[in-house]
Amino acid sequence: MLRSLSVKNYALIRNLQLSLDSGLLIITGETGAGKSILLGALGLVLGERAESNVVEGQENKCVVEGVFDISAYGLESFFNENELDYESPCILRREISIQGKSRAFINDTPVSLAQLKELGENLIDIHSQHETLSLKDRRYQVQLLDTFAGNEGILGKYREALHQEKALRMQLNELIRQEAEWRAEYDYNSFLLHELKEANLKSGEEAELEEQQRLLEHASEIVKTAFEGAESLRNGEDAAYAKLKDLENALRQQSANDPRFVSLFERVKSLGIEMDDIASELEKIADTTVSDNARLEQITERIDMLFTLQKKHRLDSSEALLAKQFELEDKTAKVDSIEEEKVSLQKRCDEAAKALEDQIAILRKARNEALPRLLKKLKELLAEAGMPHAQVEMRITPLEQAGEDGPDQVNMYFSSNPGALMQPLNKVASGGELSRVMLCFKSILAASKSLPTLIFDEIDTGISGEVAAKVGRMMKTMAKGHQVISITHLPQIAGFGDLHYQVYKTIEKGSTQTFMKHLSKEERIQELARMLSGDRLSDSALANARELLAQ
Questions:
Q1: Distance of alpha carbon 303 from alpha carbon 216, whole angstroms
Q2: Distance (Å, rounded) from C-alpha 144 to C-alpha 141?
Q3: Pairwise CA distance, residues 300 & 293, whole Å
Q4: Around Cβ 532, how many Cβ atoms within 10 Å?
Q5: Strand ranges in 460-542 using DSSP code E only, listed in sequence order
Q6: Is the dihedral of CA 503, 92, 112, 101 positive or negative?
Q7: Alpha-carbon span 438 to 430, nearest angstrom
């Protein structure tokens, strides 16, 4: 329920503060006073897109804020899914800068326009002449029937069964597609797999082979370098090791005469040990390095084979080839086991289809049982709304394929005159008739569930007199336990309001502004009299206005 509305700097509205309550709230005003502007401002806080000129000529940004009591709507899941704090009352705010930049907030938390709109659709239902177009929509008609029947739980189970059956059917179709694809590639994949298995691939083998290849290709150079190095250090005619040993002996002898030679002797001694060790390592390299052309040829062939396989599979390493081998093993193995998997999945699909058929039967039964009750109530309300001869039928017919709203569609047929052939509602009902049919539906739904705030925007166009009074009485009944706002130009409807607001505009110093005020009892009488007779308030008009309120 809308508790309050604040509008600042929107079109002709500079500063508007409204406090609202439950019951039937009436909004009246002369043509052009700004009732549509008020609805436009409310639309902003409900997530509608802003017109580019809403803040033209304003000195400050436009701010629209609505405070809602949401405790009866079961919206906790929306707040959880969108990671918002659930609070009641809940504050929705929309800000539009002078440059046209828009920001939206729920309880002071920034949100997207889509989130604001999703929540807004659960808080306010604006119904106008244009909105009756939805009544012509077959999906809307079946939703009306389900809401009246209280089929939310049944629909939930049906949709769960539908999604399960669709998901399994998609899995089965994908498996069949994969089977055809895999079987078409089976021979080729088997050949590739055999080729990779024959290669006896090993992780890291490529780097090891390349290292061995380098050693064998340069074996003679390695032996020559190692041998000559060892000779120059230890075994040659002018070997460095022998000269170093002579220096070591000389330094040892002089150490007794000059202490400065002690450290030098130790360092030269260490050099001798290191040089001897280096010479030994070089001799070992020279002795163990073997030139093997046959082995070199084998390694080269192996490396060439690996590179050929990599190029063939568009890969760059032995590890990638191993991964390809495992992939091919998986594909060929699946072809061998896919029939068993397909039989199992087909069984699950059949079970899901049976479960869906069971839910379809339950949903159809609930709809068929509720339909006569809905039509009976609808006819009663149409009579109250001044259409006593109207005939309405709702026929349930199967769809070729079950959808989110069930396996059937609902077609509404209508006739406003006795003996006239009943035809589809969207072909024969006038705008005024559609409005009253929609009003009757809303009245029925209001009695069966907690509806959001209902706003009726001049849906009384085309009616007057006693019919208008009947429509007003129906709105009054709907407003028991609900908040119903009616923007009307008919005094017969306005007289039923629990609260009455007037929209008016003033022109001062060339500036036009729209205002809205709550009318006292005496002000209501004058407003009703104006609606009855125009600006000249005659005694008879005032008397009629008092009589309307007395009803």
A1: 14
A2: 5
A3: 10
A4: 20
A5: 483-487, 499-508, 511-518
A6: positive
A7: 12
254, amino acid identity: Q
Q: CB–CB of 128/379 below 8 Å?
A: no
> Exposed (0-12), middle (13-18) or buried (19+): which is 34, by Cβ within 10 Å?
buried
* Contacts with 536 (C-beta within 8 Å, 6 or more apart), sequence order: none
What whole-number distance in Å separates Cα of residue 164 and Cα of residue 527?
59
The one-letter amino acid at 170: M
- Give the range among 127-131, 470-474, 530-534 with minimum mean pLDDT: 127-131
Kindly state the percentage of the chain with pLDDT values over 70: 95
Q: For residue range 489-527, what is the model confidence (pLDDT) as tens digits?
A: 889 999 999 999 999 888 877 788 888 999 999 999 999
User: Could you tell me the domains of the chain?
Assistant: 1-123+452-519 (3.40.50.300), 180-335 (no CATH)
Query: Three-class SS of residue 548?
Result: helix
139 vs 411: CA distance, rounded Å: 9
Closest Cα to residue 27, out of 497, 501, 478, 460?
501
Block residue for tokens 């809308």: 2
Radius of gyration (C-alpha) of the chain in whole angstroms: 45
Q: Is the peptide bond before 89 cis (omega within 30 degrees of 0)?
A: yes
Specify the pLDDT at position 91. Answer: 94
Token code pair at residue 443: 């009245």
- The answer to whether 467 touches 386, Cβ cutoff 8 Å, is yes
Give the C-alpha separation, 264 to 259, whole Å: 10
Positive or negative: CA dihedral 333, 334, 339, 345: positive
The tokens of 113 are what?
């326009």
Read off the amino acid at residue 358.
D
Question: How many other CB atoms are there within 10 angstroms of residue 417's CB atom?
Answer: 11
Q: Which residues pair with 334 in a beta bridge?
A: none
Burial class (CB in 10 A: 0-12, 13-18, 19+), 540: exposed
Q: Which of 179, 222, 453, 472 is nearest to 341 (CA)?
A: 179
CA 391 to chain centre: 42
Q: Which helix (H) or strand (E) holds 7?
A: strand 2-10
Helix (H) or strand (E) holding 254: helix 240-255
- Is residue 150 classed as helix, strand or coil in its secondary structure? coil
CA 539 to chain centre: 61
Distance of CA 139 to CAs 146, 385, 396, 412, 551, Å?
11, 25, 12, 11, 39
Please tell me the distance from the alpha carbon of residue 455 to that of residue 39, in angstroms, as a whole number: 9
CA distance 205 to 199: 12
In three-state form (DSSP H/G/I as H, E/B as E, the rest C), the secondary structure along 283-328 is HHHHHHCCCCHHHHHHHHHHHHHHHHHHHHHCCCCHHHHHHHHHHH
CB 125 within 8 Å of CB 454: yes
pLDDT value of position 155:
92
Q: What crossing angle do the helices spanning 138-149 and 431-446 adopt, rounded to 10°?
A: 30
